TrEMBL record:
CDD domains, alphabetized: AAK_P5CS_ProBA, ALDH_F18-19_ProA-GPR
Alphabetically ordered keywords of this record: Amino-acid biosynthesis, ATP-binding, Kinase, Multifunctional enzyme, NADP, Nucleotide-binding, Oxidoreductase, Proline biosynthesis, Transferase
Annotated PANTHER family: DELTA-1-PYRROLINE-5-CARBOXYLATE SYNTHASE, GLUTAMATE SEMIALDEHYDE DEHYDROGENASE
Gene Ontology terms, MF aspect: ATP binding; glutamate 5-kinase activity; glutamate-5-semialdehyde dehydrogenase activity
Reaction catalysed by this enzyme: L-glutamate 5-semialdehyde + phosphate + NADP(+) = L-glutamyl 5-phosphate + NADPH + H(+); L-glutamate + ATP = L-glutamyl 5-phosphate + ADP
Organism: Drosophila navojoa
Residue ranges of every copy of the Aspartate/glutamate/uridylate kinase domain listed in the record: 55-313
HAMAP family from the UniProt entry: ProA, ProB
Family (UniProt): In the N-terminal section; belongs to the glutamate 5-kinase family.
Pathway annotation: Amino-acid biosynthesis; L-proline biosynthesis; L-glutamate 5-semialdehyde from L-glutamate: step 1/2; Amino-acid biosynthesis; L-proline biosynthesis; L-glutamate 5-semialdehyde from L-glutamate: step 2/2
Limits of the Aldehyde dehydrogenase domain: 344-646
The protein, known as: Delta-1-pyrroline-5-carboxylate synthase
InterPro entries: AceGlu_kinase-like_sf, Ald_DH/histidinol_DH, Ald_DH_C, Ald_DH_N, Aldehyde_DH_dom, Asp/Glu/Uridylate_kinase, G-glutamylP_reductase_CS, G5K_ProBA
Organismal lineage: Eukaryota, Metazoa, Ecdysozoa, Arthropoda, Hexapoda
GO term, biological process aspect, one: L-proline biosynthetic process
Amino acid sequence: MLRNSCKALRNSFSSNTWRAASNHGPRQPLPSIEKRLEKAHPQFTERSQLKYARRLVVKLGSAVITREDNHGLALGRLASIVEQVAECHLEGREVIMVTSGAVAFGKQKLAQELLMSLSMRETLNPKDSKEFDGATLEPRAAAAVGQSGLMSLYDAMFAQYGVKIAQVLVTKPDFYNEETRNNLFSTLSELISLNIVPIINTNDAVSPPMFIRDDEPAGGARKGIPIKDNDSLSAMLAAEVQADLLILMSDVDGIYNKPPWEDGAKLMHTYTSDDINSIEFGKKSKVGTGGMDSKVKAATWALDRGVSVVICNGMQEKAIKTIVGGRKVGTFFTEATESTNTIPVEVMAENARTGSRQMQALSPAERALAVNNLADLLVSREKFILEANAKDLEEAQRSGLAKPLLSRLSLNSAKLKNLSIGLRQIADDSHKNVGRVLRRTRLADGLELKQVTVPIGVLLVIFESRPDSLPQVAALAMASANGLLLKGGKEAAHSNKALMELVKEALNSVGAEHAVSLVSTREEISDLLAMENHIDLIIPRGSSELVRNIQEQSLHIPVLGHAEGVCHVYVDKDADLGKALHIARDAKCDYPAACNAMETLLIHEDLMSGQIFNDVCNMLKREGVKIYAGPRLNQQLTFGPPAAKSLRHEYGALECCIEIVPSLEEAINHIHTYGSGHTDVIVTENDATAQRFLNSVDSACVFHNASSRFADGFRFGLGAEVGISTARIHARGPVGVEGLLTTKWILNGQDHAAADFVEGGTRTWLHQQLPID
C-alpha cells in the first residue's frame, strides 16, 4: 500500500513537477522553487507525523562516516546507515543521499601507497628517509582516488538488500548554469522514477569547497541558498525535490543552546525560528566544512520552503529509522510554536526532581496534610470528577472499548469514597516513611553511622484505562516525597485531567505544586523510557502487553511491575466444599479483569469422584464463566469443555482453565511451570499441607483459605499501591510507600581519618550496634 501510494506520488511528481526533457525535443525550463512550493504537501508540525514522510533527503556529514584519525571510513557505522536507508527504500519511501567521505577514503588508500613508496626509498637510500605525515596529502588527489572506491563500497553494501544506486557528482557550475541545474534535477527525477537511490557528492577532485553567492534580485526575493558545504547543498536539494523530510546527520545529538561541552548546555528537542537568539554556536566540525551554525541556517532555509528537518547524531544506533518512526531523536525544526500552557516533558521531569527535594524538606505532618487534602477533594469534588469521567465513558462506548476496559475506566461515588479512605491510610502512615532510621552503628569512639530511608527520586508511572490509579499513585508519591510523572491512557483523558487538577491543588497547599505532573502531550512512551537522566524508576500499570513492551524497551531505567497475572487456586483433597466454592467464585468473578483474579483452578484428582468437582463447575457456569479444560482433565472427560490452548494464559475476563493434579507436589510444580509468580492460593483444612504449600510456592503472594483478590495494597492495609511486583529485588507483591523508598548512609564523626585505624594507629574499631530510637 505504501509502495503504491509512493508510486502514484512519484508519477505525479515526475510528470507535473520536474518536466524531464524528452529525447525528441528541448528540455522544458524547471519552474522556480517558489512556484513548485504552491503544490507542496502540508508541512509536518509534530514528530509523530514524520512516519508519513515519503521523500527523504539524508545528509551524512564527514564526522559521521569518517574514522577519528580522518584516514578511512567508519565501516560499521556506514553499514548501519546503509541498512536503514535500504529499509526505508524497501518500505516504499524515496531516499536521496548526500554523502561526504571521498577525501577520507582516498587518504587511506594514498597513505598506504605512500608508505610503501617511502619504505622502498628508505631501503635504497636510508639517508633520505623522512617521517610520513598523512596530513600533507593533497585533498583533491585524495578525492579523486576515493570517489570510485566510496561508490564501489556503497554499491556493495546496498546490493545486500537488492537496492540499486547511482552516483551524481556536482560542482559549482551545476548551480550557476540554469541548463545544468535543470539537467541535475531532471536526472534525479528519472533515477527516483526507476526506483534507484541517488547518492550525491561534490566533485572535490576538480572543485574547491563550493560557495555560491546568494544573489538578491530586485525586490529582495531570494533565489537560492549560499552553497558552501553539504548542509546547504542538502537543503537546496530537499527544497528543489519537494522532500518531506531532510535529515542532517552530524557527530552531535542535535542543537544545543550553547556548545555541548560547556556547563549548562541543553539539547533543544524542538527548534523554531524564534530560538535563533537563544543559541550560542561553537567551532565548526574538525572534519567537514560546516559547523553547527551552518546546519541551523540550512535547516531553517529548508523549513521556510516546506521541508521538515531533523538534525541528529549519525552515530546513534538506528537514528534514521527512529526519526521516521516519530521518536524524539535530535532536534526537530518546526514552525508550529508550542502552546504557552504546554511544558516540555524534560522540564516536567526537572520540576519533579526539584519538587521531590521540596517534599523531603517538609515535615511528616505537612506531607500528611497534602495527602489528606487530596482525600477531602475526592469527596467534595465528586460531581466535577464524575462529569469528566462520563465524557470518557461516552467516547469509549462510541469507539467500542472492550467491557473489561470499560469497567476499569468507570468511576462512581463508591469508588471515590474508597479512594478517599485509602488515601487517609496513606496519610496516617506517612509520618514514619522518609528519614526513618533503620540501623545505627558506633564504628569507633565519636564515629556513628546511620542508615535512613529516602525517596527513590523521580518516578514514571504509565497506566491504562484506570483513572483511579492517578490519585492513589500521587498520594503514595507525596507520602514518600518522590517526584512523579504520570502518563495515562488517552481513553481516560478527561478523568485524568480533572483528577490532576485536584492533585495540584493539594500539592499547592504545601508549596510543592510541580512535584507531580501529568504528561498529556503526544510524547511517545519510548521517548519517556529513554530519559534515564531524569527518571529513576518506571512503574507500568496495565495490560500484560503494555508491561512487557515497557520492560523490553527500557534499557537504562529499572522497571517495577509484572507482565502477567496468571493466578491459581488449588483445591486440595482435604478442602471444605463450601469454602472452596466461596473462594473460587470470588477469585474469578469479583473482578475478572484484575491482575489478581484466578485464571486456573487446580483440583486434586481424588475429588473427581465426589460432589465438589461438579458443584464448582456448575457454580462457575451460573456466574457466566467460560471454562477450558487442561490436558489431564480433557483426557478424563468424554464430553466436556474445550481444551485450553495454553496453561499459561491471563484471560482477564469471565473465562478460566480447570486442571486436575494427582498430588500437592504436582500442584506446586504446575504453579511453578505455568504461573507468573503473582498470587497463588490453597484451599484445605489440612494445616500441614497448607504450610508446605505456603513455604514451597515461590510467588509474591501465597494464601491459605483466602481469595487471590486480597493481593491488593488497600486490602493489605498499605492505603494504596503503585502496582504489584513479581521481581525478586527491591519490592515484591503489592507495592505501597515502602517500595518507593531506598536508603542512604549518614556518618557523623569528629576528626576521623581512615589512616587512624591502621595497625598501630591512634584509633580502634568498635562496630557496636546501637538501639534505634
